[in-house]
Design a protein that fits this description.
The protein is mainly alpha-helical and about 425 residues long. It has helices spanning about 10-30, 30-40, 40-70, 70-95, 100-130, 130-160, 165-185, 205-210, 215-230, 235-245, 260-285, 290-310, 315-345, 350-375, 380-420; strands at about 250, 255-260. It has 15 helices and 2 strands.
């Protein structure tokens, strides 16, 4: 186990700023769909969110390329500078002096682009300054800090986003400014670009070979469908909460508070995050004797039923119960799903496969954003059916995939037996 003091200073600074950056991000981003829906309408909101996501994809591809040519720190500074400028103007557009939702939407397109520009350079920098032993420790710490930031940020956003948006954006801008200063003053360059004269095959050729891998395509399509269901919590489902759940007063341990759709969404997200942190080891222990395929498919179905059921009820207690069992289902399938990537990706093409896999999150965001538009035309009951079919479709993909992987493994065993 690598000690914390042995970790490179770059990583220590990045972990601290990643925590605060994740906190302010989770206080804002999950509630953007509700914000834009209230200001611009659901149809325009769906379109805006798709464009914002595409902008992030473009920034990510550009940032990955430029960080290999120019070095990590320079791209990180450019990315954070762009984020800072965009947040300054977003704050002004939502201040006591201005209310400019259309300009805000335009600025978030640039904001996501610069966020995408920054991310691959920051991730590459961490890999540059860690080895295989310390990297495991670093990413373990990063995982726990990210979950803690999600939990705190969800609560902060739930209480501040609706009534204190201007003050919240001031906080986001301040944290971004501090992060930029830390990068400039304390982060050292970890990569010195060198000219390479190696012949690199075109990207399209590499990706075309991945597209021909039918097993991996089942994995990708299934992943997109399941992630779409998860993303719908902060898109269509979040908007439905804000529209259909009336403001009400509750109390916990003698403390009274007001609860509406936006705050309920924040609490549900926080419940999910805290349960992931608290129950991961327990769920793994409880289902350790089950076959992986059984655990995977059972978890997917439980997750699908619970998350699609969010559309059918406004009962607060029942919603929290659904989130509990939905999170248990998530903890059942996620570890097995992640382990499958290593089995599917060939050793000589893992980078290409992983680059392709990273796009599944963006694909799910786009579909989940388009479902906001669909939700304008369909009643909640029908939308619940749509979400259920999406989740079951993803489960079916993984069912076919695991069956074929089991069949291939059995054939390999038979062939080896015959050779003996």
């Amino acid at each position: 186990m690598v000690k914390l003091k042995e970790i490179h200073p770059n990583v220590k600074f990045r972990l601290v700023m990643q925590f605060f950056g994740g906190l302010v991000s989770m206080a804002v981003m999950p509630f953007l769909a509700i914000y834009f829906a209230g200001k611009l309408g659901a149809t325009i909101t769906g379109i805006v969110l798709v464009v914002v996501i595409l902008s992030g994809i473009a920034g990510g591809f550009l940032g990955g390329t430029l960080s290999d040519k120019w070095g990590r720190k320079k791209i990180m500074v450019y990315g954070e500078l762009g984020l800072l400028v965009s947040y300054v103007f977003i704050t002004l557009c939502n201040s006591p002096w201005f209310d400019l939702p259309y300009v805000t939407a335009f600025l978030f397109i640039f904001n996501m682009f610069f966020g995408g520009l920054f991310s691959p350079a920051a991730q590459a920098m961490i890999i540059d300054v860690t080895d295989s032993a310390s990297r495991k420790t670093v990413f373990t710490i990063s995982y726990w800090l990210a979950n803690l930031a999600n939990a705190i940020g969800g609560v902060v956003g739930a209480f501040l986003f609706k009534d204190y948006l201007f003050q919240l954006f001031i906080g986001v801008t301040s944290i971004t400014f501090i992060s930029l200063l830390v990068t400039i003053l304390f982060i050292s360059e970890s990569y010195s670009p060198q000219d390479s004269h190696e012949d690199v095959p075109p990207v399209s050729i590499s990706y075309s070979s991945v597209l021909k891998d039918k097993l991996f395509m089942y994995f990708i399509v299934g992943g997109i469908l399941i992630l779409t269901l998860e993303q719908s919590l902060t898109n269509y489902i979040g908007i439905r909460f804000e529209r259909d759940i009336p403001q009400q007063t509750g109390s916990v341990f003698g403390l009274s508070f007001e609860l509406d759709g936006t705050r309920l969404l924040g609490f549900l997200r926080t419940e999910n995050t805290l349960l992931v942190v608290a129950l991961s080891a327990l769920v793994l222990l409880v289902f350790r004797k089950w076959k992986d395929r059984t655990t995977l498919l059972t978890g997917l179905i439980v997750f699908t039923i619970c998350f699609s059921a969010f559309v059918f009820t406004n009962n607060i207690l029942f919603l929290f119960i659904l989130m509990f069992f939905g999170t248990v289902g998530e903890l059942m399938y996620v570890p097995i799903k992640q382990a499958m990537i290593g089995d599917l990706a060939p050793e000589n093409g893992r980078s290409t496969y992983m680059a392709f896999y990273s796009l599944t999150g963006y694909g799910a965001m786009i579909i989940a954003s388009l479902l906001i538009v669909v939700g304008e035309w369909l009643s909640p009951v029908y939308m619940g059916g749509v979400l259920l079919l999406i989740g079951l479709g993803g489960s079916l993909c993984y069912g076919i995939l695991t069956a074929r992987m089991s069949g291939a493994a059995s054939k390999e065993v038979i062939l080896k037996t015959e050779e003996m």
